[in-house]
Design goal:
Layout: H1 6-19, H2 31-70, H3 75-85, H4 91-100, H5 102-118, H6 123-128
Helix pairs in contact: 1-2, 2-4, 3-5, 4-5
């Protein structure tokens, strides 16, 4: 008697089609097209999980720059001042603080300004002054 892969093939295809649910046209109905689409979608998902991290960091930096400039300090000076002041908050937390806790962010900015005022100036700044 000839053996077939009936149940195994059916289970495999069912698994593929379940993952392709919501796709349009042949992308959800044709086995070969479904396989190609799922392969490509997996590549996009892998790529974009990394891109998402970059995009959020960019957003936090833009927000921090805008919030810091309201307190008369540039983003680059703000970050340098955070290091000098020993404040170890990340950009995400600072960004949320700038939006939801303006008084707290103002305190952070004041601490940064104080740290920058006491920091020694770099040599090239003295030469140009």
């Amino acid at each position: 008697m000839r053996t077939t892969t009936g149940s195994a093939r059916h289970k495999s295809k069912k698994r593929l089609f379940k993952r392709a649910k919501g796709f349009r046209g042949g992308r959800s109905k044709l086995t070969r097209t479904v396989k190609e689409t799922l392969l490509r979608s997996g590549a996009y998902a892998f790529r974009d999980r990394r891109a998402k991290k970059r995009d959020f960091r960019k957003l936090w930096i833009i927000r921090l720059n805008a919030a810091a400039r309201q307190h008369d300090i540039r983003y680059s000076e703000f970050i340098f001042g955070l290091k000098l002041a020993g404040i170890e908050l990340d950009r995400k937390t600072l960004s949320e603080m700038a939006i939801h806790d303006e008084a707290g962010f103002k305190d952070v900015c004041d601490a940064v300004k104080a740290a920058l005022a006491t920091a020694p100036q770099p040599k090239h700044a003295e030469a140009t002054a």
